[in-house]
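Protocol step 4 of 6.
Sequence for Lysylphosphatidylglycerol synthase domain-containing protein (Sphingomonas echinoides) entered exactly as in the expression construct, tag removed. Do not edit the line below.
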Amino acid sequence: MNRPARIGLLLATVIGLIVAAGAVGTVGLVQVGAAMASIGWLGMASFVLWSGGVLGLLGMAWVAVAPSETADRLWLFVWARTTREAATDILPFSQLGGLVVGARTLAAFGVPQSVIYASMIADLTTEMAAQLIFTLFGVGVLLLVLTHAAVQQGLVPLALGGVGAMVALMLLFVFAQRPMLKLAGSLGARLLPGSVAAMAAVRDQLDAIYREPRRVIAAFLFNLAAWLASATGAWIALWFMGSQVPLWAVLMIEALIFTLRSVAFAIPGAIGVQEAAYVLIGPLVGLPPATALALSLLKRARDVVIAVPALLVWQIGEYRRVVS
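Step 5 output, structure tokens:
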């Protein structure tokens, strides 16, 4: 990463932290702390375990579009998805770093690079398609519950803008796959020997994946189930916190939060964006700002609980491979 990119990443992180701190200060630190404590140890443990199940669904989606990989290797793709999410959630690399860590995890267990990168591209495509469906649900519900309050009216263009950005990103990703691979191969031919053959192998694997629509559909359904399950996890956390917000309302909130996080992919962990969005959207369905903000912070705590051990184990494995 060059110096301007590092400076930009640092500035985005600092601004996000300021926004998050401002949200906590506005709502009230004591109120937010009390709301977080209300989940209890059993509630937090249930929240973390449920999130582990979501990682299982994401691993199923990835292995579904991995040519030549069988069901007995599911554990490996679940583990790779875990390290990928861990790096994305708590390391200052944004989305790209997580993809690299996930790819290295699979490569360490002998999965061919062409299979890794082709399956990752197909998995990302189906994940974005599933998220788009989930986002459209969230926007539809939002439009049904909005009143004429000025703040709430301001959410309409924000939500529709998020949908537009999601559609644009998805179309760009889908239609630019092969041209970008071709360009990467052409550039690599001038710099690295064998890169053309490597890119050609990825293209061949990607073509093989798309010739099996059942695999692609399975990956889409697993990813859609993962989006729904992840949102349901937030509802479970709120239930342990004593909140009576209905499931459909939490699904709506989470769909919009996920969309905003995706649009703000350049900000590590969408710091500040997530917190501000919860405070803004939560009250629409009767979720107090303190509880909404507490949920956001509990999700970050859950990410740390899962990500830190996962990255430590991954790093130990990387070290052993270097010294062996």
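Step 6, annotate. Confidence is low (pLDDT under 50) at residues 183-193.
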